[in-house]
Every structure is written in structure tokens, then in C-alpha cells.
Amino acid sequence: MTTVSLYTDPRENTYDQIIDELIEKTDRFLIVDRGYAIDDPPKRVAQVLEQLEPYLIEVFTMDEAMVRERFMYNNKIDSHAMYSSGSYYIYSCTPESGQVLKQEATRFGDWLYPSLPDDLCFLKEDGSDYFYTVAHEGMYGMGITEEEASKLMERIPGLFFKLQRHEQFDCFLDDAIQHQTDRLNITGYLLSEIPDRIRELTQLKELEVFEQHVSELPPAFFELTALEKLTIMTADLKGIPQDIGKLTQLKELTIYGGSAFHVEPGWKPKPKHELELRHLPAEIGNLTELVSLSISYSGIRELPPELENLKKLKLLNITNSLIEGTPDVVSRMHWLEHVSLSGHSLGLSEEALLTEEEIE
């Protein structure tokens, strides 16, 4: 079965358009009550099942599906959604059932138990997926060819498929911008710099960059003010610019130094004392939504007092650095739930952070 994956799930207007497309192209869709609730289904799950009751074709369990697959080959269901126990509901595709799907969610990732029934999938005649969702893994795709996916992308803005042409970075970035993806992973393109065009990704919420030759983050990078999760992996980042303070929606910031995607003969990471990432700018204190801050393999020796402004921070990992002891600012951040400095995890009490001397 040929499938083409999506980088991220269609959302808002794109979600509505693809639901209409799927309702027209297929006869059945599937959702799952995973049955994790001890008694009755969660309230909203029950409400959705009730709304869809007029369009119900059948309900079966995983055990019943296995029996059907063994003895009734022509009637089997082979969907990505079928990976655990639960009640599997099959509905007919009609404009009315499609309207329920559009009313109850704004993207396929919303179909996540227990908030909603799990893993909305649309089925082909043979029982395989025409469109699949595995929401808790962030996996989405369609049982179509790359050519069909490319044509569908042209018709429906926001539908961002993983295509072979994306092996060329310019094509990849062009499509990412055209479809205004909210998630992007730039890995293994052998880039030496991040192009300024990245500023055009105005809807971007999650960005991962794994490019060992990238040593600087351009000003355009910090115009991505919708970012909530940022991961940078490179061999030697020259530093974190003061403009980091503009990314005020960030919840997770992760930086790995000494990283190589393509390990060339003889390559090895620089010693920590030669790395150019040696301090955090005071503007890090502007990231008041930050929950997780992790920096691994750097030349950092001390932490700025502005770190204390991060009242929502729960996890602080500054490992494989040149920090000695516990900085005073960290000792004052009693709300932290986990701290690891230079490879030494520190236990936390409810009252205050223990210093290394207290641990000893």
C-alpha cells in the first residue's frame, strides 16, 4: 500500500476542506473509544458518539476485528488506528456526518482520547486507510501516490505532504512557506546558514534544526514570534543572540552543541573550553512562558540572574558545560522540579533547591 505522510496535520480551513474532500472520496470513516475510562466514556466522547449515531454502520472490538481478518478477508479493516484495545466505530460518509466532524474539531490532532474519540481515519473499499491519523504520535498521511499528493497540495493550501522533491532544501522551504506549516524539521541538508526566508513561516510553532555547520542564528530567525518549541543541534553555535528575548511564546528551548548529523572522517567535537557558546544573554529572562530549558555541551560557566524571571520553568538542564557548583540564581528558583548541571542531577524539596554542599 502506497502512503504519503504529512509533516503536520491539516488545521482550521484546511481541515474543513480536506474533510469535505474525504467525505466525497470515501464511503466510511473510523473513530475509536479506547475505553481507558473506568466506567462510561468521557463526556465529550459520549456526546460525539451520540451525534454520529444516525450514521453508524457498525461497532467492533480488536478481538472481533482479528476474528474477522482471519475468517472474513473481504470484510477486514486494516487501519493505522488499530493498535490497541477499544471500541471501533465505523460511520458512513455523508455531508451531515462530515459537518459533525468539522464542528467538533479544528484539526486532525484534536481527535485524541479522552478529549475526543481517537484517531479519525477514512477508509478505502478494501478496509485500508485513505487518510490516517495516529494523534498521540503526531502521525498523519494518505494512501495515495506522490503525484496525487502533489496535485492535492496545489488545490488545498495548508496540506503539507512529505515528498521526494523535499530532498532539495529550496523546494522544501518553498512548500513549507506556501502551506504555512506550524511544524518544521530542518535536518541533514548540509546548510552553513539559515536563510532569511525563514521569517516567512509566520505560523510556525515548533522548529527543529539539526545542521552541524550552522554556527549563527540570523536576525530573521527571531521574527518567528509564534514559536513555542525550539531545538537547535549543531557542532559549535557562536552564541545565543540577545534577540532570543523576542520569542516570548517559547515553552521549550533545547540546544545541543558538539552535534554532527553527517560524521566526516576524523571529525570530533571541539573541547568545551573552545566552544563559542559561553553564556546566556540577559534577555533569556524575557521568555516568561518557558517550561523547559536544556543546553548540552557548551562552554557556559555561569548563568544570568535574569533566569530567575522564568517563574513557569520546571526543567533546567545545563549539562556538559563548564559550570562548577550550583549558581546562586538556581538555588533561589525553588519552583523548579528538575535540575541537572554539568551532569549532576540535583534533588529538589518543596521548600527550596538543595545546593551541592547540602547534598554532600
UniProtKB/TrEMBL annotation:
Keyword Repeat on entry: yes
Gene3D superfamilies referenced in this protein's UniProt entry, alphabetically: Ribonuclease Inhibitor
Keywords: Leucine-rich repeat, Repeat
InterPro entries in the record: LRR_dom_sf, LRR_domain-containing
Coiled coil (residue ranges): none
Protein name: Leucine-rich repeat domain-containing protein
A single cellular component GO annotation: cytoplasm
